[in-house]
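Aim 2, interim progress. The first record below pairs a target sequence with its structure tokens.
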Amino acid sequence: MSFYDSAPPAFLQTLGALSDILRKAEGYATARKIAPETLLAARLYPDMLPLTRQIQIACDFAVKTCARLTGSEVPSTPDTEKTFDELQQRIAQATDFVKNAAPGKFEGAESRDITFPAGPDKTMTLKGQQYLSHFALPNFYFHATTAYDILRHNGVELGKRDFLGVK
């Protein structure tokens, strides 16, 4: 299996699932006359980030991981989304970025040094394989799962197949 096969396909599957989950959430809010902002601002616990940030961060991990692994410029995306439509656009942009990551640029990335921010005033450097397996993918899945959990906790009818993106 190529290193490319370890990253973009996983990101694309879950980004697609997040898009479908958000579509269901929007339909749920409309059907039950719930203000969209109520779901978008929902959290699992007061000290956790809201749904909008969970989606933004998941998108960032997909994009920035692919950029770092391919040696491309890491894009900066302001976190301004406040609606379901805007979050769908964010997911679509992340999906396009990941789809356009050239497979050949991943060659050798597993042993390349990847330096990335690890807090406000700190950076870390890991080999590409460690970065992907022990940092990027776990963080990506954490935020995608938390988005799913927030919506499920608020009554949106979702199941494992929704999270996995299986139709």
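The second target in this work package is listed in the same format:
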Amino acid sequence: MKKTYINGLGCISAQKTFDTIFLEEAELNEDDIILPLKAPVYKDFIPPVAIRRMAKGVKNGIVASTLALRVAHLETVDAIITGTGMGCIEDSEKFLKAILDNDEQFLTPTSFIQSTHNTVGGQIALGLQCKAYNLTYVNGSVSFESALFDAKMKIEEGEASSILVGGIDETSDYTMSLFKLAGFIKEENQGPYSVLEATTNGVVFGEGATFFALENEAKENTIAEILDLEILNKLDVSEVEDKIISFLALNNFELKDVDAVVLGYNGDVDSDSYYKNLSNTTFVNTPQVYYKHLSGEYDTASAFGLWVGSKIIQTQNIPDIVKLNALDKPAYKTILLYNQRNGNDHSFTLISSC
């Protein structure tokens, strides 16, 4: 079977993750419950005439995918696979509001056409004139992992030699107000909102787009290799360690072989109990990394986590702003990423240097 290599990265997030090396300009925001996006200059990537008709998620997806392709020195790919939890929710809101405001009459179709979950993948394909395999996964907080799993299988089976895979989600005013009412987001005016010292339920929300250019060959610009990926629906806190041990064993690794672990702490006191158990026992002697204090929580935030893990391997450095403990290793060859949300949708991703 062919191996899967990450040869290009592109990330648009609440941090300046473009035109930088690795989080050297990152800023910790513990005052807002919805983190604002650090937007690039869109007209540098998208014709100005087209920009005004695009929602945030579409613009960010196009920019992030373009950056990934540039790093990988690719002009086109054999497949485009995306993951998203909420899709283009901003345009969905616009269309629903227009239905109410216009009494279901005289509706323009633009917002409806651009509100579908596969809009980002479609727009990227149009820009590249890529008529190949194009699929979007909408599987909650494993949407990105589902897309990555599909991409890895296609490369392993020889059905594609290069694939663009990414995770995209955006925020919108009305949906965020509903999330606040439902308790998904932290209550306002109760900051500072520290992810590690949280004592309440709810999260600080965010948005972003992260893309990876995957190929079946290692090149000079190769960043990391994706060794394996596993998705599980539900686990108890006590079951996670055994699952990690068996997952590593399938790839001929033991716990001591993991040079760093990237955990999806999000500030929800119940959800984070899964990570704290691992931090205090399983990986107590392993360098630990977290990232959602920088990106915010959203369905495809784990794509940002993979970006962090890949950058650690590429730069052989863990920035202080993402360190969970003070441990270091002389080299970072094998990194395990673990993410879940409220005890559901557990994902294990294993990457390594080449």
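Residues 56-72 form the longest helix (17 residues). This observation will shape the mutagenesis plan for the next reporting period.
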